[in-house]
Design brief:
CATH superfamily of the largest domain: Jelly Rolls
Number of helices: 7
Largest sheet: 6 strands, antiparallel
Shape: globular
Strand content: 35-45%
Number of domains: 2
Distance between the termini: 26 Å
Strand order of the largest sheet: 1-2-3-10-5-8
Structural class: mainly beta
CATH class of the largest domain: Mainly Beta
Radius of gyration: 20 Å
CATH topology of the largest domain: Jelly Rolls
Oligomer: single chain
Helix content: 10-25%
Number of strands: 21
């Protein structure tokens, strides 16, 4: 089907899809002025092609359309040539979400693509990254296992009820970036709010859940056997990513804060009044959002879009030129396919 001239000429804005897991809280309301329903909110899925919670366009000529349907209709015109395989499958390759860990998440692991296929999950594997937006004093995350802990050691720790003794804890603060490759034991502990960028997959194997009860009054299911199959006991990479400078000048500083074969994440610091211009020429779509400050995105064939705090928008791969204009000192996040 031919692309409508105006359909992909502007950023696509979506209604967040909220998740109300027991470990959530109210910090998305406190930090970003989100309007939340009563109770706890754990996650806000900002850009999602996952069939369980697909993003729905809220404005423009594609209003009311779900993202998976747009991928099926527009293919590489939306995703770009780097997303050709995803376009062939009719899937949006990335999931971008906010997480509020008012309480600790489970200790868990995700399979890589090969293990996910072997386990017939019906989904891809799950590489992910975290960008810390807020951290209470002393907050930390779990990333990997302590030195010397292999499969037998972890199995023994699980059977003896001392999983916490073998976990590698890492202190975090706002602005930190953490790469979490598939196969890495991990967990987000209480007092952390973060941005997560991941492959489109919700396959999770829980190893430990802090002996708490789920909403039904029973312990949540663990998946220790499958977890032991997919954990990469050889990888001992550093948790915190050292930002890699890309370019600086004109009040703009760009850094890569995470990258893998599935996505690249840049942090763009813009001084008040600075502009950043780029062109989407069909190679890749991009996802943009601000995590500090006030800015707008401008495209020639669309009205200026004011970026709300920690709300993320999708720029189609064939949208053409656009400009980020910083109204105040701003920190923006830019996500694209490598």
């Amino acid at each position: 089907m031919p692309v409508s001239p105006g359909a992909l000429a502007a950023p696509l804005t979506f209604a967040p899809r909220l998740k109300h897991y027991l470990w959530g809280g109210r910090r998305l309301e406190e930090l970003f002025e989100r309007r939340l329903p009563e109770g706890v909110t754990a996650e806000s899925w900002e850009v999602s092609g996952h069939p369980d919670e697909p993003s729905v366009v809220v404005d423009g000529p594609l209003k009311g359309r779900e993202l998976p349907g747009l991928v099926a209709e527009y293919g590489i015109a939306l995703l770009g040539h780097r997303g050709a395989r995803a376009a062939e499958r009719g899937t949006f390759p990335l999931l971008v979400k906010l997480l509020d860990a008012s309480h600790a998440l489970s200790v868990q692991v995700h399979p890589d693509d090969d293990r996910a296929a072997a386990h017939r999950t019906g989904e891809s594997g799950k590489d992910e990254m975290w960008y810390i937006l807020h951290a209470e004093p002393g907050a930390s995350i779990i990333h990997g296992l302590r030195a010397g802990i292999g499969r037998p050691g972890l199995r023994r720790a699980v059977s003896e009820g001392r999983v916490q003794d073998v976990l590698n804890r890492v202190a975090v603060r706002p602005g930190d970036s953490i790469m979490v490759p598939a196969g890495t034991v991990h967990g987000i502990l209480s007092g952390v709010v973060l941005l997560e960028v991941q492959q489109t997959s919700d396959t999770t194997y829980r190893i430990h859940d802090w002996d708490r009860l789920g909403p039904d009054g029973r312990p949540r299911e663990l998946h220790v056997g499958r977890a032991l199959e997919v954990i990469d006991f050889e990888h001992r990479g550093a948790a915190l990513v050292e930002p890699r400078p890309v370019a600086a000048g004109g009040g703009i500083r760009r850094e890569v804060v995470a990258e893998c074969r599935h996505f690249v994440v840049e942090r763009i610091r813009a001084e008040a009044g600075a502009t950043f211009a780029a062109t989407l020429d069909g190679a890749t779509c991009e996802i943009w959002g601000t995590v500090a400050g006030e800015a707008s995105l401008c495209a020639p064939r669309a009205p200026a879009l004011e970026l709300e705090p920690a709300r993320f928008v999708l720029l189609p791969a064939t949208m053409g030129s656009f400009t980020l204009r910083a109204h105040t000192d701003t920190v923006a996040i830019r996500i694209f396919l490598p």
